[in-house]
Amino acid sequence: xxxxxxxxxAFTIVFEMTYHTDTVEEIIQNAADSRDLEVDEFSRRLxxxxxxHTVELDHLIGQYxxxxxxxxxSRVAASLLRMAMAEAxxxxxxxxxxxxxxxxxxxxxxxxxxxxxxxxxVLGAFAxxxxxxxxxxxxxxxxxxxxxx
Length: 149
Known about the structure:
Blueprint: H1 3-17, H2 24-35, H3 41-52, H4 54-64, H5 75-90, H6 96-110, H7 115-134
Helix pairs in contact: 1-2, 1-3, 1-5, 3-5, 4-5, 5-6, 5-7, 6-7
């Protein structure tokens, strides 16, 4: 399975987490059974990382989405921001620029017209902060989608 497809499956699971109090394994099992989804290891790890770190991720989203709290965001935007940040912070093998680009593409596909630019802006701020802390080039220099203002 391609990573892009695995991210999309992970997104459906993370999105469902916003509606249910079931465990991540129960949500994954329900998705696999009811929609005949093949949930691969990457999708599971990403969904589990979001589940395990939702409080920290929501704090980061609040920090980088100035003037917006997570509970005011669309479920699509909140889910994608959690996913991309979790991928960058807790999964070792994914460049941040890839996580940003994939989140923006999923926002275009599943979100409202404001979601993709918003997701891109928040993740761009997150990436710039991480690059500054690590002394690395800004995400635009590393191939991430440029911030739309």
